Amino acid sequence: MADPTPVDKQQEKAVPPPAPRTAVLVFHGIGDQRPMETMLGVANAVLGEPEDAGAIGRWIKPYVGKDGFFDLKSVSTKAIGGEGRRYDFFELYWADQMSGTRLVAVLLWLCDLAKRDRSALPRDATWLWYAVVGLMTGAMMATVHLAWVIGLTLTGTSTAALQQRAVEAAEPVAAAFLVLGAVASVVAGFCLAKGVPAALAVFAAFAVLAFVGYWNGIVLLTLVPVLAGLFIFLGTRAAIGGMLVVAGVALGIVLWGPFLSLTVGIRAASGSVVDVQTAFDLIFLTVMFKAAAPWLLGFLALFLALAAIFLVPYVGDCARYLRDAPDNIEARNRIRQLGLEVLTDLHQRRSGGRPRYDRIVVVSHSLGTVIAYDVLRAFFVKQMSSLQLTDMTAAALRPIDTMPDDALRKTTFRLAETDSGLTWEPESGPRAGTALTYQAVVRWAFEVFCREQRTGFANGLTASPWRISDFVTLGSPLTLAALLLTDDGDPKTLGKKVKLREFPVAPPAESPGEKGRVLFREGSADDRHVPDVPERLQHSAMFALTCWTNLYFSQRFVVKGDFIGGPINDKLSPGTVNVPLRTTLLGGYFNHTHYWKREPGRKAETEHIRALALAVLGEPAFRRVIAARASQAGVQQGEKK
């Protein structure tokens, strides 16, 4: 090759290498989100509000990505510190892909959740499960009751005549239920091989219906359709729980005599206590309880209003994304494909023939954490499918690959001030053997990987195929991963999926039959070693190169803090840094959207704002940003004088 000419050398000197840049990609959460709303909140938390003294200078410009989505913009900063690093903030906006959600989709998803194991919920939040199944049971009972009332009114049938027919048919109805119970118990116990206990339970249920039909058959008009619907849509446990909740509420109403005498009017004019028959009619909403109709109409109106205001706009996003029904697959695929395109675009961008970004941070909130998690694991498989590691990269990954299951001590973390600046510290015990030491190993592996690996992109750029250094989750429903990501809600089922490497964790799971967590040689099996075949990364080793930091407001009884967020399971992912937070915003209640909002009295010193900035920037960059802001504030103060 010919030596460079003097002109070539002069041009090389004239074009300095581009300043290092970090891209921050934000995935917003549920609700009626507006473009850039979450991204600007995160940018202001990291860089300071534009009106703050010493805030990092920034510009807002259109984000012209693959498709040129003109409602989206990016935020670019000035060069910071001696390194001259710049930060570009982007948002992956997906709310438009979830428009048109219907109430039925939300209700079907809630029914699916009701069937699953509720043990994944925090103990002080189980009341929410009972409240939801009770509300849905009440809505179903109200609908059936009103349908009967309307039908009887249109046909001109009196309830007295209906009651008389029920009395006359009491014995045949009871006998029919006993026969059906015997047949059903045989089918359940022997044909379906459910065992004797299941057969006895089925027969007992039909025996109760037989008794009810014999004693007061008119109750079956509402009870049977409601029970059938509950068992079909909510499952056995939820059906029983819902009926108990409704019965408890009804009994409370019955026993609250002074209130009833002024409102429902089910006490006799003489003021005598409500009789058993009337209480029974109220609990099971029989057609004999005429006073229920106007109240049930009001209840259904309130339920529909709640659905229109809250369930469809907010829960609807979760229902469509987390429920793998055929109607939802297309929307989910569009969102994930959009995420892959944006990450590919960020990896392919270049400045002066070099990668524009040497580090990419993914920040996500609420349902956006699940979406980002799905996008990242798909992108990792896409980028690593044909990659062969160098010896130095494999050596850097070896400590993670051979890490024992009990290597990391389980604990949460907090902000701590040290002589060198703000850092994370364990809530208990030393740093050694915690997720912090694991992240230190991951950062070293990431640095070596980016230095050693080179992949040719479609635009001619040659660079590391994976430059995502950090995954930051805010208020993540992944704390309820067993409930949301499995069909039965059982944590054991989630553990099996992790072992099969369906869901990446930190550190990567050691799959049965394999020796390592991260590395493998194609063509090798069991203990056989094939030295001539280069080592490769297994498809779920994402968190061997990327650090996962999870911030959440500690919740109590659902209303305190952030119920949607919480710690990532430290049994399955002990390498995740879980950081519980507290805030005075709204008195510490309903804080799900407060991760980037400052407390009025503390502003930039707000604990969760500092935690967010530290998680996004990392310790060295956080200190440089703080120093740059202090320097800028000093300059501004001097100019004022």
From TrEMBL:
Keyword terms: Membrane, Transmembrane, Transmembrane helix
Superkingdom classification of source: Bacteria
Stretches that traverse the bilayer: 127-153, 173-193, 200-233, 239-260, 295-315
Name of protein: Uncharacterized protein
High-level lineage: Bacteria, Pseudomonadati, Pseudomonadota, Alphaproteobacteria, Hyphomicrobiales
